[in-house]
Specification:
Strand content of chain B: 15-25%
Mean pLDDT of chain C: 89
Structural class of chain C: mainly alpha
Number of strands of chain B: 10
Oligomer: heterotrimer
Shape of chain B: globular
Structural class of chain B: alpha/beta
Largest interface: A-C, 73 and 66 residues
Chains: A mainly alpha, B alpha/beta, C mainly alpha
Largest sheet of chain C: 2 strands, antiparallel
Mean pLDDT of chain B: 89
Helix content of chain C: over 70%
Radius of gyration of chain B: 22 Å
Low-confidence stretches of chain B: 1-25
Distance between the termini of chain C: 64 Å
Distance between the termini of chain B: 58 Å
Number of helices of chain B: 11
Order of helices and strands of chain C: HHHHHHHHHEEHHHHHHHHHHHH
Order of helices and strands of chain B: HEHEHEHEHEHEHEHEEHHEH
């Protein structure tokens, strides 16, 4: 990164890699939990390799933490990289609606939960104002894509897509 | 009051529907294609045997047998979900021994052996000791003699741990009072590759290996009651003085909610396929042995096999 | 030999080859639909056909699917099949800067070249090459997996420690579920969701595609930059680049063929190994990972070369080279066909007709692939965001489910996706995790088996370090890891000399 670029393009700040430290600490915790699991295994074939991997994971995470604490200016964060602040709420809603659809799948079936997720994400990723025509068009496309894929997968490719235990289709 | 009457109405109609359904099912079953779930990935032996059955199902019952896969956890993913499926006779799943006996004893895998409603065991692929064509081991005695002189140095490949191959190795070592080393590979294909590439001295394989790789490998003994029709020259372990009859057994199970008459109907249908001459021919050509354990004999069969497998698995350290 | 070519050229076979390539390309382009599944679904149809036609169609589908995997890799940063993992490294950056069309055409040319090279080796050298597959024992597989893992060093330029941590995390993910050797169920923490382990393809969708979706929905800008007007296929430009990269293509195709021959290795490893070799051989390494055409060429030619390579052990030894080969082998058994070296002699007509069919299918992939690729590209750049995001998201759901017909896999895919996005924010990129996940099972299997054999023969050291092929791979690992340091030293020395003089 050249000096002039630093000044013109974005505001740069050197700081301690807090995020990295937290991640590394979590990896160490994960390692401890997994290490405990390996003590329940009886066959060496089952635990030798994972223990090596866990040792690597924990050791490297420790190295990362020590490094980050010793050298405070390890990471270069660029703030205001994007002109418009990205919407974190939309991000979270995307994950939540997809997870929700997955959890509902065994109850309402794939078709309905898939359609639900499709509509939810359509609303989430629309930034321009809705018009009457667009609503109709997009709804039609949504139904066509979901039903189309559902048909191809379950009838052509013989994929047994989940049927709901509450609501069923023939 | 209104609600109550609606509820009773629903209840009675539901019962009526079930009754009507079960008697109907018996008469016209199957009316549509039947889904056959293989709890392993495509291309394995469980898949191949299902593919062998597929055309004969169509030929005999005029409906399609649709094969799909639910692999994972060495079959556990599929079996743990079997009882959540509709018990209308249109879903069935392959079951494998010793898997369904050993797996639930190792860990909580979401099902117990008794949860699986087996309706038929239709074949088994017998265990066999396989060596390369040019191996110095000409007979089983040669192999045993080598193992006796070099404890632990007789290295055999095999498919999986807690599998038919592995348990056969443990039982055989006991019977012959030798100590051999078993190297587990992921699948029979890789175990054969290790044998052909001389990474190991011999293989605990199946008769299907002898059929598929004829000319490149020899079988020293097979674990059948009497000689395999495809290999009349290969002795059985029994003839040679080892009471070992074992292999990978395959059968078919249905969800628990499947009515009794449908279970029996499916059992007799699989029996029909098994007695088809051309089907027998094809299966035996691939080195498999046909087996007829019908629905009423399932419990006794599983109980007897459990006894054998569990004691071997304990010795192998696969289960506690 | 020529008569077999004519047998492959019957109108029925040509039609099946074309249909197979088109169907395969489309299937492969959808994340979650793999070549294995495409082949498995179509096996029953082949029971009504003559064996050669059936083989040609299955081979064509397989070839097409491996190529189709590149679309999603380039346009959505999601490998459509595991074989296309390394295609994302440079394909997606190219698409981001507006060269998606060029990337797709390059991928198509590379795939055709790779496919032809693989089929050529299958035609002329299959029986001797099969011996190579057998020379690879557990120790060699272990070292090969480690060699693949060294790519982490190249992929994590910013922070090596973080890359290595990601790699270890991936290796740990690979341990979840049924253990590679012992079959024990591990690291499920009592939950039935994880019994089946982390399925590779659904994990790939999660780790790569979900973060893209998360970032897509957060801003109103378009998904891909499109500068200026449409430039068609950009075939001339792509041809020129391909000609310039002919050594890269040849090297990668040969690597792909050889990795394909090794049972259990497959297209993903072929792509990764040749990517890392292409990077090492390149004069300008800094461009790799930022949209270097060489990266796409290396991966795509290598993964299509595994098709021909994988058929070598399948047809000669009856041991499947790659997962789709296992399905095809099963189909051949049901057709009543015995495979083996004699297939190339006595029943040669079937094998040779099939190999020529594979050639034809690969050649047909050029026009078919370019055309389908163009539509895929147009679709991605023109469709409005409010439809693109839900469509891709819906495909990740249905795709992750369909691989093993499991809702748990969808759930794991989403959780890994969210995790991947968060980790990426803190400098842990997804690629090392993926490398660990893919290579973990092979590494563990090879390690434990070598250990067992070494302990039994009382020669552990010799088992791991004393075998000739192992030594070659270990040398390659050493070269890969330390070459950059040597190169730097040499350059410094030269500079010093110049300064002194």
């Amino acid at each position: 990164m050249s000096h002039s670029e630093t000044e013109t393009k974005m505001h740069l700040r050197r700081q301690r890699d807090i995020g990295g430290i937290i991640c590394a600490a979590l990896f160490i915790l994960l390692g401890v939990a997994c290490l405990y699991e390996t003590t329940l295994m009886t066959d060496p074939d089952s635990y030798v390799f994972p223990r090596m991997v866990i040792a690597g994971l924990m050791g490297l995470s420790l190295v990362l933490i020590i490094n980050a604490l010793m050298k405070p200016d390890t990471v270069v964060t660029d703030e205001n990289a994007s002109a418009v602040a990205p919407s974190n709420s939309r991000r979270i809603l995307l994950v939540v609606s997809m997870l929700g659809a997955t959890l509902l799948m065994p109850w309402v079936g794939f078709l309905l939960s898939g359609l639900g997720a499709f509509v939810a994400l359509m609303l989430l990723s629309q930034y321009d104002p809705w018009t009457q025509g667009k609503i109709w068009l997009y709804s039609l496309v949504a139904v066509a894509i979901v039903c189309g894929f559902y048909g191809v997968f379950s009838y052509l490719l013989n994929v047994p897509l989940p049927e709901g235990s509450f609501i069923q289709f023939p | 009051m209104v609600i109550k009457s609606i509820l009773t109405h629903f209840a009675t109609s539901a019962i009526a529907a079930t009754l009507a359904f079960s008697s109907l099912a018996q008469a016209d079953y199957p009316e549509k294609s039947v889904s056959y779930i293989v709890p392993f990935g495509p291309g394995g032996e469980s898949d191949v045997t299902a593919r062998h059955q597929q055309p004969f199902f169509k030929k005999l019952f005029d409906e399609d047998l649709v094969i799909s896969y639910k692999p994972g956890g060495g079959g556990a993913v599929g079996w743990s979900q079997l009882n959540t499926m509709k018990g209308d006779g249109y879903s069935m799943m392959g079951i494998n021994l010793p898997h369904i006996i050993i797996k639930p004893l190792q860990k909580n895998v979401g099902f117990e052996t008794k949860d699986l409603t087996g309706v038929y065991m239709f074949h088994y692929t017998p265990d066999a000791i396989v060596v390369k064509q040019d191996s110095p081991f000409k007979t089983l005695d040669d192999l045993v003699a080598f193992a006796k002189q070099n404890p632990g140095k007789l290295i055999l490949s095999g498919s999986g741990k807690g599998s038919a191959n592995h348990l056969a190795q443990v039982r055989f070592d006991n019977m012959a009072s030798v100590k051999s080393t078993y190297v587990s590979f992921k699948g029979t294909g890789k175990a054969v590759a290790a044998l052909l590439g001389e990474q190991v001295l011999a293989q605990w394989g199946y008769t299907s290996v002898g059929a598929k790789h004829e000319g490149k490998v020899r079988m020293l003994a097979v674990a059948t009651e009497s000689r395999h029709p495809r290999f009349p020259d290969v002795p059985t372990f029994k003839e040679l003085g080892y009471d070992l009859v074992s292999g990978a057994y395959r059968g078919i199970a249905v969800p628990k909610s499947t009515p009794e008459d449908v279970r029996q109907k499916i059992s007799s249908m699989i029996a029909d396929i098994n007695s088809d001459k051309e089907f027998r021919q094809r299966m035996e050509n691939d080195g498999m042995m046909l087996l007829d354990v019908s629905y009423d004999k399932m419990d006794a069969f599983i109980a007897q096999k459990s006894k054998e497998y569990i004691s071997a698995a304990k010795q192998a350290g696969v289960i506690k | 030999m020529l008569e077999y070519l004519f047998q492959a050229l019957t109108p029925l076979n040509l039609l099946l080859a074309l249909a197979g390539v088109v169907a395969g390309t489309i299937i492969g382009s959808l994340p979650g639909l793999t070549a294995t599944m495409a082949v498995a679904v179509l096996v029953p149809i082949t029971f009504t056909m003559p064996v050669t036609s059936a083989l040609i169609m299955l081979g064509a589908i397989y070839t097409g699917a491996i190529y189709g995997g590149a679309y999603a890799a380039i346009l959505l940063n999601t490998p459509g099949t595991p074989s296309a993992i390394a295609t994302t490294f440079d394909g997606y950056p190219m698409a981001k800067r507006g060269d998606g069309d060029l990337a797709i055409t390059l991928a198509c040319i590379a795939s055709v070249v790779g496919g032809l090279v693989g089929a050529f080796f299958l035609l002329v050298l299959a029986p001797p090459l099969a011996e190579v597959a057998l020379a690879f024992g557990p120790a060699e597989y272990f070292w090969m997996a480690l060699f693949g893992l060294t790519l982490i060093a190249a992929l994590s330029e910013g922070n090596l420690t973080k890359g290595l941590i990601g790699g270890c995390f991936g290796l740990l993910l690979a341990c979840v579920g049924s253990a590679a050797v012992s079959g024990d169920i591990r690291f499920t923490f009592g939950s039935l969701t994880m019994i089946g382990g982390i399925e590779t393809v659904s994990a790939l969708i999660g780790l790569y595609c979900i973060p893209v979706l998360i970032d897509l929905v957060a801003v109103s800008e378009r998904h891909l930059n499109v500068t200026g007007e449409q430039r068609g296929y950009r075939l001339k430009e792509a041809m020129a680049i391909s000609w310039k990269g002919k050594f890269n293509l040849a090297r990668s195709s040969i690597i792909g063929t050889f990795v394909g021959i090794l049972p259990g290795a497959g297209g993903s490893i072929a792509g990764l190994v040749s990517y890392s070799e292409a990077r090492r051989a390149s004069k300008d390494k800094s461009q790799f990972g930022k949209g270097a055409p060489e990266g796409i060429q290396a991966t795509e030619s290598a993964n299509n070369a595994t098709v021909g390579g994988g058929f070598v052990p399948t047809l000669v030894l009856g041991i499947p080279g790659t997962p789709p080969d296992a399905v095809i082998l099963g189909a051949l058994m049901v057709h009543g066909l015995r495979v083996g070296p004699e297939m190339f002699e006595s029943s040669g007509s079937i094998v040779y007709t099939f190999i020529f069919g594979l050639f034809i299918a690969t050649l047909l992939m050029l026009p078919a692939g370019l055309l389908i690729g163009r539509y895929a590209y147009r679709f991605i750049i023109t469709v409005p965001k409010a439809l693109l995001v839900p469509t891709v998201a819906f495909m990740t759901l249905i795709g992750a489910y369909s691989i093993r017909n499991s809702v748990s896999d969808v759930f794991i895919m989403l959780v890994l996706g969210a995790l991947s996005w968060v980790l990426n924010r803190f400098g842990f990129s997804p690629s090392p995790i993926v490398l660990g996940l893919i290579l973990g099972r092979i590494a563990e299997e090879g390690f434990v088996q070598s250990w067992t054999i070494g302990a039994a023969t009382e020669n552990l050291f010799g088992m791991f370090f004393g075998r000739p092929i192992s030594m070659v791979i270990i040398a390659a690992i050493g070269l890969g890891l330390f070459y950059p340091f040597f190169a730097k030293q040499i350059r410094l020395k030269r500079l010093q000399k110049e300064v002194i003089e």
